[in-house]
Amino acid sequence: MEKTTVYATFWERFLSRLIDTLVYLMLIFIPLNSIVLSKSFDLLLDNISNFTLFILIIALIILPFETLMISKLGGTPGKLLIGLRIQKTSGKLLNPKETFIRLTLGRAVSGLFFGLGYFWIFKNEKRQGWHDLINDSVVVRKINYGWLIGLLILIVFAIINVAIVSGVIAGFAANFSFFSHLLG
Amino acid sequence: MKTPNFSEYIKNSFEIVKKNKWLWIFGALVGTGGSFNSGSRISDMLDKNPGQGTQNNLLKDLPKTTSGVLGDATSALSDWFSQVPTFKWVLFTLIIVLLIVMGITIALIIQNWARGALIKGLDKARQGTHVDLKNTSPDGFAYLKRLIGLSLLLGLVVFGLGVAAPFLWVVIFLVFKNIAILKILWIILGILLFIIIFVLTLLLVTIVNVFAQRLIVLENFGVRAAFKKALYISRQTLLASFLTGFINFCFRLMAGILSLVLLAISIGPSSFIAYNLWQSNPVTSVLLITLTAMSFLVFIFFSSCLMAAMNVFSYSNWNQLFNDYIKTDHK
B83-138 pLDDT, tens per residue? Predict the structure, then answer.
């Protein structure tokens, strides 16, 4: 019997993007701790430069990383965790070139007019956004209750992020005398 | 070439803009990242990331120039800068250059995909074919490589001109430097002459670009062949092209004025009232400020739609001029 394709909803896709965003934010927040705990001006500058370098490296590798993930596995970590798969309408995975186009040109197209292209998912019968339409791709659901797993994962990552940010704030408060001295 | 019927152009373009809203997407993206026909833009970007040696020199100079003003903190900062290991500077520079190259590549892809899709989409719309994102997007990809090639070629031409013109000016200045009258005359006339030549060449390059893009997309030309043929067409249709460009400019200007009027209407009165009510009725004032912010967002939305539509309108006029040339004079 032929399996029917179930297309992922806007909210499922939004959930997967939120998970990805929280993972990336976590990567950014962790090294912030070293900055707020700096005890000397030299160390502070060292940590700020390391942090900047780290952010630049993340910015550089994030696109190749996502391209590789989508073209080889069918989704970014968030999508894979909740059982979504990005594929061509024919069912094949996108090749790296198509994935790169989706991630760059696709995002530019969907981001136009306050992200109207993303909201197009509500309107299209195959739940395609403008970034899907430009290279004939769809996002399909492979697990039925993936959103539930996703929601749990989202909560876990949100808690981790809040904990990290709290740590950063606590570190800043503990080291406040150094910063107030620095600012005169 | 016969004088084009511009009123017909305008009427047809408005009709196409009104009926084919999918084309607005391409219209919104054709201006992404500015024009890469200007090579100087690329070189300007690269100049912002000087080599490590230059950075170190600047940093060594810091105490002399700024520590007197900013005191010990600046001194400590420059000491720290000089202690940063070389590999870190190299890594910084490398990553930033890579990010810039990546950004330029992405902008080139977006811009040229939109151009190709818009030119072809307008042609389809003119023939009465239904146009949407799905059936027009492949056209953008089909001509992407050649349109990027054209962008780079024209960028090189402008860059070459930008380097050669001042160089020539300096050479002639050096020849005249011992003759006071000629020197002063050259300073005034030379600058004026070069500005005029530069502006005219830029206009010509823009017109060549317009025709070359259409030769690639609508007539399936290669980059070099399109460039040569576009140069020829530009000479043949110079007046008509200037007029088309002028019409497009006027409509853009009107759209710009309309945008300003919309902005004034959408946020002007409410922000004025909010400002005056701030002391006597802060709650109403805050509500009005929120309303103003929302109106501003609505304005941004309509303004971006208007600009996208104007780009489609301009491209449509150029397409009609090109088609008229190809049909009446060439074939």
Answer: 888 888 999 999 999 999 999 999 999 999 999 999 999 999 999 999 999 999 99
Could you give the angle at which helices A10-36 and A41-73 cross, rounded to 10 degrees?
Answer: 160
Count, residues in chain B: 331
Which residues sit opposite A87 in a β-bridge?
Answer: A138
List the domain boundaries for chain A.
10-179
Residue type, B240: A
Q: What is the pLDDT of residues A63-108, one digit of tens each?
A: 999 999 999 999 999 999 999 999 999 999 999 999 999 999 999 9
What's the start-to-end Cα distance of chain B, in Å? 12
Nearest CA in chain B to A57: B95
Sign of CA dihedral B292, B297, B301, B306: positive
* Three-state DSSP class for residue A127: coil
Task: Give chain B positions within 8 Å (CB) of A41.
Answer: 73, 76, 80
Q: Which residue of A has its CA nearest to B297?
A: A114
Q: Is B266 exposed, middle or buried (0-12, 13-18, 19+ CB in 10 A)?
A: buried
- B29/A109 touch (CB, cutoff 8 Å), yes or no: yes
Size of interface A-B (CB pairs under 8 A): 67
For residue B83, which residues of chain A lie inside 8 Å, CB to CB?
A: 42
Among B25, B80, B102, whose Cβ lies nearest the Cβ of A130? B25
Angle, helix B191-219 to helix B144-176, in steps of 10 degrees: 160
